[in-house]
Write a structure and sequence with these properties.
By secondary structure, the protein is mainly alpha-helical. Helices cover about 55% and strands about 5% of the residues. The protein folds into two domains: about 70 residues, DNA polymerase, domain 1, CATH 1.10.150; about 160 residues, hpI Integrase, Chain A (Orthogonal Bundle). It has twelve helices and two strands. The longest helix has 17 residues.
Length: about 270
């Protein structure tokens, strides 16, 4: 077992998701391949400046997060400093998802029943794509499922209509137990499968590609729930956030609505 394989094993023990494992291993591998690589403060400080010239701030911080995890794995007590990011009050309009666009996406998914139901499940419950495997046939009768993320369990309630549709789907697919969303070989549907299928459906629906990805459905759920309930603490609980600031970021809009309200104030005569 080489060093990176050992590091991945450590990440598994830390209960990091597969996607996080892949990113961390890839970023640490990139660091190791740099000329003169050594785990010294001086070298890593120079490396930090190099990647700042190559990438945007978020990507740089992704590399730093991976390196810091690797330093922890190596029992090195110090860590690299992240690049500060000025908080943005608004998101780009090209990423803001709306009800009409969601409806169009669902219409485009109707030729693929599994995709249609997966999109509805994520969007109507707010679960992460990695939690889709916890939607199991034997739990449909109770109308709720237990999901595990980073060592924490939480209960997710399923809308009644979704339960009906999933029950019908399990019936004609002869799924009696285990994950409902599976591949032809019986394995749980993975992130890449769903991502590609959603992109194709989004293109058919005439939607901007930047808006169509599984995690954006989770953000859309958060926005709809908050607009209806105005309860950010309950929303954080549903989403599985331990930090409410994370939940606040889910509620950031493009500013289009804010601009409209400013204009409606009619204070410029």
């Amino acid at each position: 077992m080489n060093e990176l394989e050992k590091f991945r094993k450590y990440l598994v023990e830390c209960e990091k998701g597969v996607a996080t494992q892949n990113i961390y291993v890839r970023n640490v591998r990139s660091m190791m391949q740099e000329k003169g690589y050594t785990l010294s403060k001086e070298w890593l400080s120079k490396y930090r400046e190099q990647i700042k010239e190559r990438y945007g701030t978020s990507t740089v911080n992704s590399h730093i997060a991976a390196i810091n995890q690797y330093l922890k794995y190596r029992n090195i007590e110090w860590s690299m400093q992240y690049v500060r990011i000025q908080k943005n009050s608004y998101i780009e309009e090209s990423k803001e998802f709306h009800r009409e666009e969601y409806d169009r996406l669902l219409d485009a998914c109707k030729t693929d029943e599994r995709l249609f139901l997966a999109v509805e499940t994520i969007c109507s419950t707010g679960i992460r794509i990695g939690e889709l495997k916890y939607i199991r046939a034997e739990d449909l009768k109770s109308g709720s499922v237990i999901v595990l993320f980073k060592g924490k369990l939480r209960k997710i309630f399923l809308p009644d209509l979704l339960v009906e549709r999933l029950t019908e789907y399990c019936g004609h697919k002869e799924i009696k137990e285990g994950p409902i969303f599976i591949t032809r070989t019986g394995k749980p549907l993975d992130r890449s499968n769903l991502w590609r299928s959603m992109k194709r459906a989004g293109k058919m629906a005439g939607l901007e590609s930047s808006k169509v990805y599984p995690h954006n459905l989770r953000h859309f759920f958060a926005a709809v729930f908050y607009n209806q309930e105005k309860d950010i603490l309950k929303l954080a609980d549903i989403l599985g956030h331990s930090n409410i600031e994370t939940t606040r970021r889910y509620l950031v809009t493009s500013g289009k609505e804010h601009r409209q309200k400013i204009n409606e104030m009619n204070l410029v005569k």
